[in-house]
Amino acid sequence: IAEWLSDSKMPAVCLKIDEDQRPVKLRKIVLGFPCSDNLTEFKFDLTLNYKIASIIQTYSEQKPALVFCATRKGVQQAASVLAKDAKFLLSIEQKQRLQRSANSLKDSKLRDLLMYGVAYHHAGMEISDRKIIEGAFTVGDLPVLFTTSTLAMGVNLPAHLVVIKSTMHYVGGVFQEYSETDILQMIGRAGRPQFDSTATAVIMTRWNTREKYIQMLNSADIIESSLHRHLVEHLNAEIVLHTVTDVTVALEWIRSTFLYIRALKNPTHYGFSSGLDKIGIEAKLQELCLKNLNDLSSFDLIRMDEANNFKPTEPGRLMAWYYIAFDTVKQFFTIKGTETLNELITMISNCTEFLDVKLRTNEKKILNTLNKDKDKITIRFPMEGKIKTREMKINCLIQAQLGCIPIQDFTLTQDTGRIFRNGLRVTRWLSDFLASCRNNFSALLNSLILAKCFRCKLWENSLHVSKQLEKIGVSLSNAMVNAGLTSFKKIEDTNARELELILNRHPPFGNQIKESVLHLPKYELDIEQLPKYSDTLAEILVTIKLTNYERLQTKRTATDFHYVTLVIGDADNQVIFNQKIMDSVLLKTGNWMKKIEVKRALKSEDISINLISSDYVGLDIQQAYTAFYLTPKTVGSKVVTNQKLKAESSLDMYYGSSQSLPAAKVYTGGRSKQEITYKKYGNRECNHRCKTKDVCGHDCCKTGVPPKSEMNGDSKFSLYLADLRNRNSISSVPPVKRLKMQMLNQAQNVDLKQFVFTPKSVLPVLPR
């Protein structure tokens, strides 16, 4: 390490610190136990449980002892065996303090063991239970604590005696030896400077590995590099940062790494032959570097020109920005573009980012119940068969969290938290990665929805929208769902006092909830087709309105970085438009407008317009819309006439399922069934785009034009000539003049006699 940190101007100084520098002298003992070939690691581990009592009696000197076990289950088993085999002398005060601690514990098994002076500690326990056990052990009330190796890394709990029960541990489905670092870290817990002058560390292992551990404890630990396992990700990051710009600079960069220093000293560890000299090892590192660069180039993560200069691409920049593993990127390059939400979750469950999540045997029953159960709420997309793999476990936990299904097991809750921490950046990367393509509308839309679901920890159509509000957890959200408050609109319309009754809270809690909802952004989406269209192209005007933007000027529930993504796609799965729109832009004027050209799709004229919130479930708007083109669509021998443009809402979580969206403004030409009379003449609709066809000057707008079959040609020009002939046959008067004449006739038909003065009739003279 000193050699790696040194440079020509200032060499690093290496200080050697050995056992003599320890404040408490450490005695190290390695005990070997016979183990026959037919004895499995599990059974050997169980036999060691019955030898713990004698070791503690021999070496502990009635002082606290820490016993490290390989698995969480092994920790509990060993503690139960010791509680039966050994009796510890405890003072009356110690027993009273242990009784108080036991009463506070949630774990019933641990509560029983604690009164015997024995306890266990591992990462799968409740945090409150762990804190109580740590406190009891630190003050010396607890004679023996069984724990997993993770305690040696994270929590500072020194003891007089440390016992490592078995040197094998279970990793990735197989048993393997503890690393030298793990062993040294565990025995380093022996010795309490404030209480002891000496300490003892005992390693329990097989007889045939005893000598190995004696040698390990007497020698220094050699640190090796791990860069060669992740070189491709680091090279990409350096290219994105413009640190590495060509092959020469890449090789100079490799020479500056700790990998280069260690490869020269221990080439076999890195897969190089031991007989290589410095030039040979440099050549091998160069070969490894070029292979990784070619891998990046083959997936278009970087671009290499003929002179071997590198330039980062957008996918490469996203990979470095979100810190995504190369294997994950490779997996998503196989995406078809039509993936559903379920298929995307399955793909994400296979990502390299979740390799540290393990499937434990005791978890399978709970996971299978979440997947399929007749009597309980299960996940949205059940998987076939039983939960057998790590990927299936990840998929199940993702869906359970999004569906607000309670998971009682604390270990699974911890795993879920880890999955969502990594999943948040993986899903955000996926939506940005798919945004760079054009023929994957379905996958892009579902990736945007999934990224938002991971952020909110809710499905996009969830009834638990209230869970996103401050001070509302799962239990209060369930109460609101049971009361029928399943959308922000319904919560907004409910009286504050009624909310407090539902949630069993005191005022002004209801007012605070209503305030939060009132200051959420509320969007409205308007679509209007412009009168500029051809056979293959139409133009629409999309307007996004922030309906409560005046209220949001003073206070906002959403963050300043909240945005919506407008994504539009057609029936051919092509992305027509995709853009992020910040709330800060909408807050300036209250709306955002954009003219968008829509190319005619082969399948149909239907387009899907979606407004997806980045942070909130319940604010999205999704609409279907049919564009109008100059000529009707031909399907086989039939002509499909596009008589009416439509805009309908398929989802608006803000307004809820029972209340329809405000009608979208759609340019329909002002026609109605009563006004269109051309059908009675046996004609078809003309192509004029007059606003009100019953009063315009075109006769063809009222009577239509003859069908194509009656015309002498199918070209647009012959269609135009036939249209002219039809109009001339009806009237030779120009349309504008005819319109004026109609208006004059209407004026003349008004009965003017009603305005003429008429004297009253003379009354008859009465006789005197």
From TrEMBL:
Record EC number: 5.6.2.4
InterPro entries with a match to the protein in the record: Helicase_C-like, Meiotic_Crossover_Helicase, P-loop_NTPase, Sec63-dom, WH-like_DNA-bd_sf, WH_DNA-bd_sf, WH_MER3
Family annotation (PROSITE patterns): HELICASE_CTER
GO biological process: reciprocal meiotic recombination
Domain Helicase C-terminal: start-end pairs: 54-239
Keywords in alphabetical order: ATP-binding, Helicase, Hydrolase, Isomerase, Meiosis, Nucleotide-binding
GO molecular function (one): hydrolase activity
EC class (word): isomerase
Catalytic activities: Couples ATP hydrolysis with the unwinding of duplex DNA by translocating in the 3'-5' direction; ATP + H2O = ADP + phosphate + H(+)
Family: Belongs to the helicase family. SKI2 subfamily.
Name assigned to this protein: DNA 3'-5' helicase
Provenance organism: Fulmarus glacialis
